[in-house]
UniProtKB/TrEMBL annotation:
This is PXMP2/4 family protein. Belongs to the peroxisomal membrane protein PXMP2/4 family. Keywords: Membrane, Transmembrane, Transmembrane helix. It comes from the Eukaryota. It is found in: Membrane. PANTHER family: PEROXISOMAL MEMBRANE PROTEIN 2, PXMP2 MPV17, PROTEIN MPV17. It holds the Pfam family Mpv17_PMP22. It is a multi-pass membrane protein. One of its GO terms (cellular component) is membrane.
């Protein structure tokens, strides 16, 4: 494991963007496999002992490799390159334009706030739009999905990601911040799949009732 980490550090030093892109694609692909497992467990009803063996076989978890490739491509094409330049640019902006002392409370708080209110919504919007297009949905269908899923996901993630990012911006060097975020995205992928699986759940309607969307 130590040898693998040193190899990653070397790749990151020599080819920073390429390394971030490839690692993002791999991590998001693995995350989608985990998300599929979660979705399968959630959606599969309990089977009675009287069910036939064939029925049980049909309910066995099988990885949808096309979906894995699609999600991995999102990591490759969006999360990797955009995330790399975002975290590098955010750090330079806070240090050089706002003139805040690194690791100070205002430095970390500013990063968390800007990341949460700018990159967070953009990332969610890009994810839901991309996944909709990749499954062949029309633009009107994607709009409805975004209206249904975006706000609940943004609110729930808003209670988790700031805590994650405080540790990220306070203790993790800038060059490793995207990797840190991607590792947490393994869990986030499961969460977003769960959000999608919920469809028009009552709790979503309750959340959206506080901010009516037309």
């Amino acid at each position: 494991m130590l040898r693998l980490w040193k190899w990653y550090q070397n790749c990151l030093a020599v080819h920073p963007v390429k390394t971030q892109v490839i690692s993002s694609g791999i991590i998001w692909g693995v995350g989608d496999i985990a998300a599929q497992a979660v979705t399968h467990s959630y959606s599969t009803p309990n089977t009675a002992h009287t069910h036939q063996i064939q029925d049980d076989d049909d309910e066995e978890f099988k990885i949808n490799w096309k979906r894995v490739a699609t999600t991995s491509l999102f990591g490759l094409s969006f999360v990797g390159p955009v995330g790399h330049y975002w975290y590098e640019g955010l750090d330079r902006y806070i240090r050089l334009r706002l003139m805040l002392k690194p690791d100070s409370f205002r430095f970390v708080a500013s990063k968390v706030a800007i990341d949460g209110f700018l990159f967070g919504p953009l990332d969610l919007l890009a994810f839901f739009t991309y996944m909709g297009l990749s499954t062949g949905k029309s633009i009107p269908q994607i709009k409805e999905d975004v209206k249904r899923d975006f706000l609940p996901a943004f609110i729930l993630e808003g209670g988790i990601w700031p805590i994650v990012q405080v540790a990220n911006f306070r203790y993790v060097p800038v060059r490793y911040q995207l990797l840190y975020v991607n590792l947490f995205c393994l869990l986030d992928s499961c969460f977003l799949s769960w959000i999608e699986q919920q469809q028009d759940a009552q709790w979503k309607k309750w959340v959206k009732s506080f901010l009516p969307l037309k």
